[in-house]
Amino acid sequence: MDVIPLDAPVGAELRGVDLAKPLSDDEIAQLRDAFLAHHLIVVREQDIEGEDQDRFVQHLGPLLAFDNGVYHQFMTNQHVENAAMSGSGRLLFHNDGAFRSRPRAGTSLYAIDVSPTSPPTSFANGVRAYELLPENLRKKIDQLSAVHILDYDDPEQESNRVRQADFPAGRTLDDVRHAVHPMVVTLPYSGQKAIFVSEFYTSHILEFGPTSTEGEDILQQVFAVLYDEGNVYSHHYRNGDLVVWDNYGVQHARSGAIDSNPRHLRRLVLDTLSW
């Protein structure tokens, strides 16, 4: 098995591997080292079943069960059981579950049936962006936390950032899913630091408050580096592609709306990184 860094600001491709077969101990060690170093793993041209994706991803940690008790769901525009409720529009960059007290550790998608018009998943490197911030800004956000919101009652949230400052009169944080996390997180095993605020879920910086122009200016400075095109890789799926990424080190987005052509991917979520 070979680990080939992508010609991109994040990610590496595994080559010379058949995920329909169990990995050797040496290959498992290679996978884990590559995941820590590159934060996103791509494996192409795989003809696998669900159990093969499960086995591969579990080399990085235990899977999380969804609310219905199963460990997989489908990101799809087909009418199937266990389809995720993710809409069909563009999805802004985010870390999965940032509005929860314990966000997801990682995510994997396997392309079962995708068309050439299927929108890509784009990835922004939170580790690289942190390192690129001016030193004074890094030191500032190291000491700050942010409020993250998911508002189930807002039909526009999938394509628009929701801020507490924009709530209608009478609506409070108690009416939405929300959590507070440091603006900078430390990744397990590697000890690297990554930006943990996003254009999707982040409402405001806690210490500045929801209506602070200074707090919003800090967020926009961070977003400008994080979402610069030089810090983003877009993966255009072909059938048989598998991707898995670190949800703390990398943010992802659906970079376009889904049309009527097939876009059917199997999704797994890592509960923790653990080996």
UniProtKB/TrEMBL annotation:
The keyword Oxidoreductase applies. Pfam families: TauD. InterPro entries: TauD-like_sf, TauD/TfdA-like, TfdA_dioxygenase. It comes from Nocardia jiangxiensis. Belongs to the TfdA dioxygenase family. One of its GO terms (molecular function) is dioxygenase activity. This is TauD/TfdA dioxygenase family protein. Residues 4-268 form the TauD/TfdA-like domain. It comes from the Bacteria. Its cofactor is Fe(2+). Keywords: Dioxygenase, Iron, Metal-binding, Oxidoreductase.
